């Protein structure tokens, strides 16, 4: 399975709801023949806002306060120049490394086509071929190159580095075109060679409108060079945020934002994913002085098992519920030794399946209202409790796009967005409080990273140590 596919974490609920909007739109009356931008490259006639540009990575506080929590994309001009890779990674240098005989995963086409097979070839062989073929290297950054890529200083907090997920290398002779897609993670992408254009769509603003006809991978199959606005009406009247990146720049892509990427000229980029939903809040205990040498080699990326590539971190346990609500509810009832669930008990069940829901203050009136609607969907016979009489009536195959699944999927998506918003607010409050504790010089006491940056989330409780 293709890594980007795996990364576009499948949220089944969104999948169903977008499918439905697609079906609705298919039935809408024929559009006028002269749609601006029809059969033209993506965003040709659309309003485009330039993504704002800052010169260097800000402190973790500034970065999370101004960009991550409010979902604002930003280009960090020269951000990639900090890394040795920017100078070092010539083809000659890379080929000279003995490790370049290791196999690496290569896509056979630059215009993204997720159904095509990939090929494994020695990195050195790719380096000999890529200038004259359509091959595109998209793979986890190999260990032997990790030392050359520095962790952006805005992420130099143990609470952040404990929640890194994956780091990927993108290497081609240019001319790559990705699908319109989304990733359920936060991303910093740094460009070491070439140019890249990112077209971004504000998730909050347009989430109801964009249709992913390939919901299983969270992407749209629309031809980005010739956008059929009749077939993909959700792409009409969109506004885009545009980032034109030069070698040496990095970009921050906010959680869930929809994006499409084109590259120009010999192109090398690395991105870093971290878990947006985890409790990632910079704090004096977790953020020390920036550590100039901290590289990809000093942290761990537990998203994939490094040997077999399996996903290790389940970002969305609620998917199990969504895939088989009957079995999940029945198991819960068995565990609770009951044969029915009242609405109150159902909320307790939700606490167990949705990350973050069990925390204080998440159950706002709005969230409770949506949960109530979900309860009503599941209470098929409407007797005020969920029993086997209800679960027996659930569709056997939830992905058949029947009204039950569509309804449930939409409500789960809305609930997910409300929860994300609540958690984001909480994090901003924690950040505001903890900022008061930052000493005058803006730095907190430094600590020894060598062991703390590896491993699990418990590390923040370790005492500070002066270097
Ligand atoms: C995204 O859209 C929301 C809702 O319209 C808006 O409040 C927010 O400011 C937008 N974000 C950016 C970065 O433009
Ligand atoms: C840091 O992370 C830990 C574990 O994820 C969490 O319990 C703690 O609240 C976080 N601290 C802050 C200030 O975010």
UniProtKB/TrEMBL annotation:
Segments forming domain JmjC: 130-291
This protein's record includes keyword Signal: yes
Domain of life assignment: Eukaryota
Signal sequence, renumbered to the chain: 1-23
Domain EF-hand: 366-401
One protein family per Pfam: Cupin_8
Keyword terms: Signal
Bias (Basic and acidic residues): 429-439, 446-457
Molecular function in Gene Ontology: calcium ion binding
Region (Disordered) location: 429-467
Polar residues biased stretches: 458-467
PANTHER family hit by this protein: HYPOXIA-INDUCIBLE FACTOR 1 ALPHA INHIBITOR-RELATED (PTHR12461), JMJC DOMAIN-CONTAINING PROTEIN (PTHR12461:SF18)
Protein name (record): JmjC domain-containing protein
Source species: Patiria miniata
